[in-house]
Amino acid sequence: MDEVASAFVPGHVTGFFTVDRDPDPTKAGSTGAGVTLTEGVTVEVEYAESSSLLLNGQPVEMGAVDRVLDALSVHATVRAETDLPVGAGFGVSGAVALGTALAANALYGSDLSENELVTVAHGAEVQAGTGLGDVVAQARGGMPIRLEPGGPHHGVLDGIPARGRVEYVSFGELDTTAVIEGDTDALDRAGEESRSLVVRKPNVEQFMYASRRFAREAGLLPDSVAEAVAAVGEAGGEAAMAMLGESVFALGRGLTEAGYDPAVCEVDVGGATLL
Amino acid sequence: MDEVASAFVPGHVTGFFTVDRDPDPTKAGSTGAGVTLTEGVTVEVEYAESSSLLLNGQPVEMGAVDRVLDALSVHATVRAETDLPVGAGFGVSGAVALGTALAANALYGSDLSENELVTVAHGAEVQAGTGLGDVVAQARGGMPIRLEPGGPHHGVLDGIPARGRVEYVSFGELDTTAVIEGDTDALDRAGEESRSLVVRKPNVEQFMYASRRFAREAGLLPDSVAEAVAAVGEAGGEAAMAMLGESVFALGRGLTEAGYDPAVCEVDVGGATLL
Q1: Is B159 close to A114, i.e. CB distance below 8 A?
Q2: In total, how many domains does chain A have?
């Protein structure tokens, strides 16, 4: 038997969302839409007597990862590597949780199905309070629309059939937990309106428009982000805020043409996978 | 606006299945499980006054493709290229139908979602009588388990979380329409039993075992296929019959080690995608 197993999970930026609470973490989550990224997280899981997690070589704590290992009843050394900004709206915690589930299942022969592994990682992320919709989107790939909240047994996904270049910049972190555990009435209304716009017309331009509208209506737009989104618009491009970070993403060459020096990747095609 | 749009759709071999008839083609389909392949079909769609289809440069008729273009209310020249054997259990007709839906939607700005495009292609394939479960599997990628039949609004999918090398050989065609429109009682019972084996233990070895068991119980095994499957088993590998073709697939190097000269690819990760 191999000593290690590895998985890749794409990054994910959410353009708009709702907060859907439920005592059952496999039913809780969010609706909304986003973009998965070929830039993501590689997770390597190795047998160990007690569990530990290294993110880019540094020891860190992630509640979602602890919960995934507990759910599979295993101990492991988890090594996650990523070039994505951490805590800035790129779904790194969800990616580490899902990658750990996939790789640990393969290493320990736990015989869970893909849906079961996504359920474990989604529930762990919800219970840890670090995310609501990244895991199910990262499992699918592409540009996922979350029509109904929750893990694979309850949630409903669709997708915008588009691929291409994505650019992003991050100016800093935002506290996901503080936002999703606070009063989300205005946010939920804005998220529902944006979702309905994209369901009626599931194309890229509409998604970017609905995302910008959401950031404004939900009152989540930091000045730095508003400025970058406006600059891209003035340069003839399309940008929006990555929820929830002080971060901006653009399709095509939008940020470059507005004079920024963005990271560049593509819309991810495949979603999370064993390596 | 571009003059052409292209999509890639993975091949798909089914290991076992049931036939689930329904007057509504979006509810009809099959349960079962299979493997999607990095070897697949590239479909290019170009504006045209009247529709035509070329498969590897040769004019052909495919009822499913006509129906997809009708559903989108467009005319197009469709060029499909593949190295897969045609009519031999590799899902070529489903791939051409789904690739046509994705590429035509992009070219003509039809603004359908991914689920809607998969629904159109699945329904077209069912109504043409050329397949029951390839399209939804090809849209997902990986090793899909079809838990409930039908398109995305009715069907339920899961997956075996495994990746790796796949080998295949084909000795000839089998008539899918004749089998799925005939008496399928024994086949359905065998398919349900195999599905239940894989749901209980969703790993690769169990899938290959359940697939061999199905081919035998359903009485579908041609001598050429039985011989190759046995030869791979004697060489210590795992092989099964590709439904519905006179074709064999093996994971890893099974066919090579049994002395065959197979085509080689990998389990596809991403499923169908625009290029």
Answers
A1: yes
A2: 1
Residue numbers of the domain that contains B71: 1-275
Set of chain B residues whose Cβ sits within 8 Å of the Cβ of A105: 161
Q: pTM value?
A: 0.96
Q: Shortest Cα distance from A142 to chain B (angstroms)? A: 9
pLDDT in tens, B187-239: 999 999 999 999 999 999 999 999 999 999 998 899 999 999 999 999 999 99
With the C-alpha atoms ordered A43, A48, A53, A54, is the resulting torsion angle positive or negative? negative
Q: Over 90: is that where the pLDDT of A91 sits?
A: yes
pLDDT in tens, A244-260: 899 999 999 999 999 99
Confidence check: pLDDT of B52 > 60? yes
CATH code of residue B184: 3.30.230.120
List the beta bridge partners of residue A110: none
Q: Using the beta-carbon criterion (under 8 Å), do B160 and A113 form an inter-chain contact?
A: yes
Do the chains contact at A161 and B106, CB–CB below 8 Å? yes
Contact between B220 and B241 (Cβ < 8 Å): yes
The average pLDDT across B138-144 equals 98
In B, which residues are within 8 Å of A145 by CB distance?
Answer: 113
Q: For the CA atoms of B206, B208, B213, B216, what is the dihedral angle to 10 degrees? A: 180
Identify all chain A residues contacting B115, using CB atoms and an 8 Å cutoff: 158-159
- Does the distance separating the beta carbons of B152 and A158 come in below 8 Å? yes
pLDDT average, residue stretch B140-145: 98
CB-closest option in A111, A163, A199 to B273: A163
Place of tokens 């690769």: B204
* Cα–Cα distance, B4 to B186 (Å, whole number): 46
pLDDT at B1 over 60: no
CA distance A70 to chain B (A): 19
| B106-135 residues touching A, CB cutoff 8 A | 106, 109, 111-117
Evaluate whether B6 touches B43 at the Cβ level (below 8 Å).
yes
- Which residues contact residue A178 at a Cβ distance below 8 angstroms, ignoring those fewer than 6 apart? none
